[in-house]
What we know:
The protein has 112 residues and is α+β, with helices and mostly antiparallel strands. 18% of the residues lie in helices and 37% in strands. It has a four-stranded antiparallel β-sheet, with helices on one face. A hairpin with a 2-residue loop joins strand 3 and strand 4. Helix 1 packs antiparallel against helix 2.
Amino acid sequence: MKLVVAIIKPFKLDEVREALTPLGIQGVTVSEVKGFGRQKGQTEIYRGAEYMVNFLPKVKIEVAVNDDIAPRVVETIQTAAHTGKIGDGKIFVFELVQAIRIRTGETNADAL
């Protein structure tokens, strides 16, 4: 099993969710996060004053999937979240050692 974690621009969330649905993804965890990458934040102008925003708003998506579908999930997120501009985000793939559905006690692939 794999845990796919993607940090994307907030306005791309609906496109990513809609793109994952045909793959049979039944559960996704979404968190509002802040961070910065190579761009190190950006300069904003508010009421005529310029100030630096060090942490930009992003959305973190976490999806637990079977090994066989993980490459398609990564490709789908990459395609749906792509704008071609700086700050599009990152995708990380982790080995998932164990998954347990609390309600039923199902484990691993059955728990997904």
